[in-house]
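Hi there, hope your week has been kind to you so far. Do you reckon you could talk me through the fold, stretch by stretch? Thanks so much in advance, here it is.
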Amino acid sequence: MLSVNVEQRFNVKFCVKIGKPTTETYDLLKKLYGDECLSRTQVFGWFKMFKEGREEIGDAQRPGRPSTSKTDANIEKVGENVRQNRRLSIPAVAELINMHKETVRQILHNNFNMKKVYSKMMQRFLTPEQKEIRMNICADVLQNV
């Protein structure tokens, strides 16, 4: 399913191909999409680009540096360091693997489901294996009482 913006761009491109004027194209989009219609400036901009020969209806690549720190290898490095020493602070882990502190915090929070508890990094939720181990220990304790 196309997003509303992409669908509207497709319609603008169609109107350019059949020779509709810009204002009429905007009016048709406004009538069809109502409040979800692209702004007049956006419609006129896309109309101009399609009239000049643009074929793609998707967004163009934007300049900027791509994120290179949240790779699988770096996520694994963060996990290894925290598993080896749970008392490491986020800045310490970041310094060990030469990564930004906020990136390390996001990896711990999003990928490993951990949060800071006192001075340790702890998982927020138990894994199914940890739950089973806890249940077995509790059952053993109850049997021995």
Q: What stands out?
A: The longest strand covers residues 114-117. Residues 105 and 114 are 9 Å apart (CA to CA).
